[in-house]
Amino acid sequence: MNPLEGFAAHLAGELGRSPHTVRGYLADLRSLLEDLEEHGLGVGDLDVPAVRAWLSRARDRGAGRSTVARRVAAVRAFTRYLHREGLLAADPGPRLSAPAQRRSLPTVLDEGQAEAALSHPVDGSPVGTRRRAVVELLYATGVRVAELCALDLDDVDRSRRTVRVVGKGDKERTVPVGAPALDALDDWLAAGRPDLVVPTSGPALFLGARGGRLDVRRAREDVHAHLRAAGLDAAPHDLRHSAATHLLNGGADLRSVQEFLGHASPRSTQIYTHVSVDRLRDVYRRSHPRA
After folding, report:
1. Residue 263 annotated to the active site
2. Nearest to residue 75, comparing CAs of 38, 19, 35, 104?
3. Which of 25, 81, 139, 272 is catalytic?
4. How many structural domains is the chain composed of?
5. Considering 95, 124, 157, which residue would you say is the last residue of a domain?
6. Where in the sequence is the domain holding 232, given as residue range(s)?
7. pLDDT tens-place string over residues 48-79
8. Which DSSP category does 10 fall into?
9. Active-site hit among 168, 213, 220, 279
10. Which is higher by pLDDT, 97 or 196?
11. Helix or strand or coil: residue 146?
């Protein structure tokens, strides 16, 4: 088996990486192997100098920190796999360091903007009904767009007001969902989904124009269109950022928000505390007499 094919199966099957991650890693590794071939080297010649030379050439072509960091992660996983399979005498991965990331604060809608977006009218077509349900559910649950597209009908528990979500690494979590989002879902299930369903639709909660499961690209387009119509310049993931920040602003503790978002580490969630502190500082400056 081709090493890349075996590695792809390892990523998806054993490590549970998402299709998006698998595609990204494989694209990076194809670039690495092509670079090796151009210099008369093969998979068995992978070592620290060869990888660093490849990364250096990528930086010279304008690759940013996040791109280089992703490439290092891909190479580490690949060389670990090759070494385990006996295709590489030594694993150079642990000696490869990724550039430090400058974490920018996420874009967050304030509560007024979120309300304006969610209350913006839509037409009564199946697409309009779906669009409202998608936007409501993304904000209500904080799920990722890919997680939303993977939902099935029985993942929504109307009586308990919860949604079962399968996140990164096939980790399952249950998140609460509010009445407005459930009402929007009810509208979609009653007056939107039936117009799109076909015999092969299966249990998918959200359907595309041809009756198949709604894909991530189309879902993002739905959200962009709705937010633009509401006069907002925001991305679908900003609804997730906003949901997390609004929870913290409302008094939720960091651990609860971590569970809500499905973060493996609290470090991923801590960025939202910075957003909340920045807002508190702005309010303080405007309101405190001795600020």
Report:
1. yes
2. 35
3. 272
4. 2
5. 95
6. 111-236
7. 999 999 998 888 888 888 888 889 999 999 99
8. I
9. 168
10. 196
11. helix
